[in-house]
């Protein structure tokens, strides 16, 4: 077996110094080779691992109430990606409880996960989990929501300011340029994404001089029943003079639609949404919701699983940008995906992607409405 240059240099140096013992020669050569790396393709390309998958991925999803996406789409897409890569994984849901979130994280860290992929319920509890994970040598990825003040290695999401801008553009398209009173139903105040959605919406709507913001309120925990109570109060205070509702997701939008239907006959309120839920899409077909924002979740799950697998291999993952964490005073390597505004004329795109099944969307009275919208 031929010795490489590093080994020969060590041998010659030791011989010149009169150190000829086999043990000394072997140990010194081994140290030199270890310091130089093993010459694998990953090392030659700047990676830090051999390419073998080692360890397990833990995933903590936030709840089952803010959106149907977490269990209906994110979980199966992540499972599919990890199974295809032959990766061990454990996916659990915090069910809206920060205590459960922390308990799950502790159990996963104790069980030996190498990577934690988390969607935090709030930044404080998620940051605490990430710091504990780091202290145990576990890498972390923020999934969908950035943990402010956290220490995640990566962040994967959609461009959430752009999501808000799609909401704003959608409402503007539905209202036109006529004078309009607008109420905002923002997402949970503990969710950084909700702040970004509102920022994006205001980027668009604040520039329209004929629009007047008559109310804006965050909905705790994204709960639709709280949204209904809040909007009922807004409706009463404004004596029903509301032309548009910038609702941050379909559940909040549906709550606003129910309140408007109960209190108003004949009139129509333009309502936005997000997540392209079955209910939201049917509302669009009905004409009671003007649009939703569709986020192809499979793209997000695939990007996150790819980064997690890279970490398991000891490699650096591929990212497309960075996102600033003002509390942590750092720029987080990120993958940001592009959201899509959905109106009646392109509802068919969501079905074509397999995000919603035509058989579910077009049941009963919706069969004719689907046909009119070109849904196959």
SSE topology:
Layout: H1 5-16, H2 22-36, H3 41-44, E1 56-61, H4 69-85, E2 88-93, H5 98-111, E3 115-118, H6 123-135, E4 139-143, E5 154-158, H7 160-175, E6 180-186, H8 192-205, E7 211-218, H9 224-237, E8 244-247, H10 250-263, E9 270-271, H11 278-286, E10 292-294, H12 297-312, E11 321-325, E12 330-337, E13 340-342, H13 347-352, H14 358-361, H15 366-372
Helix pairs in contact: 1-2, 4-12, 5-6, 7-8, 9-10
Helix content: 40-55%
What sequence of helices (H) and strands (E) makes up the elements?
HHHEHEHEHEEHEHEHEHEHEHEEEHHH
Mean pLDDT value: 88
Q: What fraction of residues sit in β-strands?
A: 15-25%
Distance between termini?
66 Å
Strand order of the largest sheet: 2-1-3-4-5-12-11
Radius of gyration: 26 Å
Please tally the helical runs, counting DSSP H or I stretches of 4 or more residues.
Answer: 15
Decide which structural class fits the backbone: alpha/beta
Instruction: Describe the largest sheet.
Output: 7 strands, mixed
Low-confidence stretches: 1-49
Q: State the total count of DSSP E strands.
A: 13
Large-scale geometry: globular
């Amino acid at each position: 077996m031929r010795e490489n240059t590093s080994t020969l240099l060590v041998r010659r140096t030791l011989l010149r110094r009169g150190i000829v013992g086999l043990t000394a020669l072997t140990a010194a050569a081994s140290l030199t080779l270890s310091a130089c790396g093993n010459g694998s393709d990953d090392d030659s390309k700047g990676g830090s691992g051999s390419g073998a998958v080692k360890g397990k991925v833990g995933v903590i999803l936030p709840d089952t109430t803010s959106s149907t996406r977490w269990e209906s789409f994110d979980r199966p897409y992540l499972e599919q990606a990890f199974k295809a890569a032959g990766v061990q994984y454990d996916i659990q849901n915090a069910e809206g409880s920060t205590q459960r979130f922390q308990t799950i994280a502790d159990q996963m860290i104790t069980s030996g996960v190498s990577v934690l992929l988390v969607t935090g319920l709030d930044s404080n509890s998620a940051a605490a989990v990430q710091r504990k994970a780091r202290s145990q040598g576990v890498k972390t990825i923020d999934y969908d929501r950035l943990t402010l003040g956290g220490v995640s290695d990566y962040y994967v999401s959609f461009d959430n300011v752009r999501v808000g801008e799609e909401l704003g553009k959608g409402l503007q398209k539905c209202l036109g340029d006529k004078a309009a009173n607008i109420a905002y139903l923002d997402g949970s105040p503990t969710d950084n994404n909700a702040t970004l959605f509102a920022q994006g919406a205001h980027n668009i709507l604040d520039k329209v001089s004929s629009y007047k913001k008559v109310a804006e309120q965050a909905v705790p925990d994204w709960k639709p029943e709280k949204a209904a109570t809040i909007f009922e109060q807004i409706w009463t205070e404004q004596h029903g003079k509301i032309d548009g509702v910038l609702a941050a997701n379909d559940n909040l939008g549906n709550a606003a639609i129910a309140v408007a239907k109960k209190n108003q006959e004949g009139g129509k309120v333009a309502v936005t949404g997000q997540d392209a839920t079955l209910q939201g899409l049917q509302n669009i077909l009905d004409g009671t919701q003007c649009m939703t924002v569709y986020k192809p979740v499979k793209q997000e799950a695939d990007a996150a699983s790819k980064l997690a697998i890279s970490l398991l291999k000891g490699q650096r993952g591929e990212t497309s940008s960075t996102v600033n964490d003002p509390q942590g005073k750092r720029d987080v390597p990120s993958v940001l995906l592009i959201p899509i505004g959905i109106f009646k004329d392109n509802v068919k795109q969501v079905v074509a992607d397999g995000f919603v099944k035509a058989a579910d969307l077009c049941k009963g009275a919706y069969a004719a409405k689907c046909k009119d919208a070109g849904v196959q």
